[in-house]
Amino acid sequence: MTMRKFFVTFMCFFALATMANDGVFFVNGNQLVPVNEADISISKEVLTISIGDDGYATVDVLYEMMNHGAAKKVAMGFEANAPYNDSAKLNKAGKHPYIHDFTVNMNGTDIDYGNAVVASPYQEETDFVPLNLDKWQTTEGQDFEGSHNLYDAKTDSIIGFSYAYYFTAPFRKGLNTIHHTYRYRMSYGVWRAFEIPYWLTPALRWKNHRIDDFTLRIKAENTAKHFCFNDSLFTSAPFKIEGTGKMRTVKQPYGGQMLELALRNATLEWHARDFVPSDNITIYAADMLYGDHGKLGEFYDRGEHYVLWGFTDKKPDARIKRNLPYANRGYVFKDKKLQKYFSSLWWYMADENYTPSTADFTPREREFIK
């Protein structure tokens, strides 16, 4: 497939500037974007982000798009930032090393896509023409770091780059449906066992410059997740929890406020009409709210990058550490002291029907109970 030239406004993921060397940024999620399109609007979007224990998030997006003009083919694309602070090698074929199972289905038919490595200049228009990788090389061996940059020795210049996924979408007149899915590696760093950046603003590039009917779903399916995010984009309607969960508004350590969630086999849902996303969203593990000043286990996650904070001794209380995985599943302890302790942790949600078992323990949790 020949790459068509088109331009999109590059929205830089703000955490790149703040995370310095204290974290690993793998990839952002993103909306599908059009090519100079004036006739097609987003009538409906259902965005589902599922958080796993394996270090990956799964994105499932269902669009309903209205073509107000005649049937036509539209070049569409998806941009994903290159990894940052990571050792992944440049994939010259244009496939992101941390995106898997990328699919696009339109009106019931799977659509083939192509890949390319493209330039991503900071806060400028991104030219989606494939880069000449004989000219632009990785920055390995240079005096500056940055696995997310490419270097031209001839001109002594450096550019950021992204991986592009692109395809031609056959729009019929009237209503069209696009179902888009992929899995991507969650980032992590100091004080955050995981973070999931997702770009919402590219939706503004369509005809109506908004999403007529928008639903956001964040799922913790067959697991429990303790996380937070800035909810300032979502003040026009209430959040709802389906399943076992709780939420509250808390202050951030450095000012502002966040919505804090504890979900166990549950889904957080937000629905609104005429949604105009003025910013992007990042879902953070809730350890960023506690740092090392909270109780032992005040933040808990089953994933591989969970770190025990909140104790001053060299060795944490072995009984609490060993029983954290059970408490996370809602176990009601017969020991009154343990029950009192875990009940004091905000994320704890008792389940009288839970029978202790290690069958679904993650490798990290199995370390705790040894």
Characterize the overall form: globular
Query: Helicity range of the residues?
Result: under 10%
Which structural class is indicated by helix and strand composition?
Answer: mainly beta
Name the beta content range: 35-45%
* Low-confidence residue ranges: 1-21, 141-146
Structural summary, described in words:
This protein has helices spanning 15-18, 318-328, 336-343, 363-369, and strands at residues 7-9, 23-24, 40-51, 56-67, 72-81, 99-106, 109-110, 114-119, 125-127, 137-138, 149-152, 157-171, 174-185, 187-189, 192-198, 211-229, 239-251, 257-275, 281-285. It is mostly beta strands. Strand 6 (99-106) and strand 7 form a beta hairpin. Strands 2, 3, 4, 6, 7, 13, 14, 15, 16, 17, 18 and 19 form a twelve-stranded mixed β-sheet that branches. Strands 5, 8, 10, 11 and 12 form a five-stranded antiparallel β-sheet that branches. The model is unreliable at 1-21 and 141-146 (pLDDT under 50).
What topology emerges from the helices and strands here?
Blueprint: E1 7-9, H1 15-18, E2 23-24, E3 40-51, E4 56-67, E5 72-81, E6 99-106, E7 109-110, E8 114-119, E9 125-127, E10 137-138, E11 149-152, E12 157-171, E13 174-185, E14 187-189, E15 192-198, E16 211-229, E17 239-251, E18 257-275, E19 281-285, H2 318-328, H3 336-343, H4 363-369
Parallel strand pairs: 3-16
Antiparallel strand pairs: 1-9, 2-14, 3-4, 4-13, 5-12, 6-7, 6-13, 8-12, 10-11, 11-12, 14-15, 15-19, 16-18, 16-19, 17-18
